[in-house]
């Protein structure tokens, strides 16, 4: 009896040690990714700085007009440090960046951080709208097309997704603006709110969310209507991409042994699809979600200018036209940071979904 009690005592510590060892690979995986993230961000700042300096044109002339005086050019370059050697400019910029200072916009004469704090929520609201609806409809269409392979449903969805990928985004935006706003008057043509609508209290910067927090459903509906047209343009391309990837991923696992075994057990089709097929296809879907987020940010430049949406895309366009170097650098670093964070999240999701990744 004493021997039995002695053998049972160390069971809990052993179990704790095993759990600790099981978490170590995931911690190492996360630390490696975070270390790579820091190095990548430093490289991005250097590349962005060099590319900005390689842009043809004179920032002083672009901001002061066509015929500025030599004194005004000299004062402009001295104010923004443009007459310093490139290594000095980069080191100065990197030091300010570490302190959260992205410089002062040469057009708005405000800190770039303040400009971005106004533009980012607008783009975030549009991006969230596009990603949520793209994921819902894209995965649903992809699964449906795979389950109805080589039927009329499959062929119809393939034509739809091919058209969504092939049609230029700017043409689709202009067509939607002409039909739904100018021709039929069903939806607003641009901006985030009607001129007569009082903006909600600024809490998150997202008009729809802030309107709900205020309990103002009229403002929420107005903000949501303004999201539909620009969001639909981004959604159409993203839905097509997600749907095609999902269809391919589902077809790869549709006739696997474990799927046939699940059906042989008499499980419902819904259970087989959600717990067996979609779970196995999830890594491919997560991969394409990272691409979708990138496409949303890239398409926002065109869409925001077409629909007069005051977000990052419109700010980047105006900064590029006026050769506003601090603003261009600020936008580039912000977008790069978003890309890096999204890729980190995708890597972590891989580790959560597939145990082989976190144990490797």
TrEMBL record:
Species of origin: Conexibacter stalactiti
Transmembrane segment boundaries: 30-51, 126-147, 159-181, 223-242, 285-307, 327-353
Keywords, ordered alphabetically: Cell membrane, Membrane, Transmembrane, Transmembrane helix, Transport
Family (UniProt): Belongs to the binding-protein-dependent transport system permease family.
Name by which UniProt lists this protein: ABC transporter permease
Domain ABC transmembrane type-1 span(s) in chain numbering: 120-350
Subcellular location, record wording: Cell membrane
Membrane disposition: Multi-pass membrane protein
Entries under CDD domains matching the protein: TM_PBP2 (cd06261)
PANTHER family assigned to the protein according to its UniProt record, in alphabetical order: DIPEPTIDE TRANSPORT SYSTEM PERMEASE PROTEIN DPPB-RELATED (PTHR43163:SF6)
Gene3D superfamilies: MetI-like
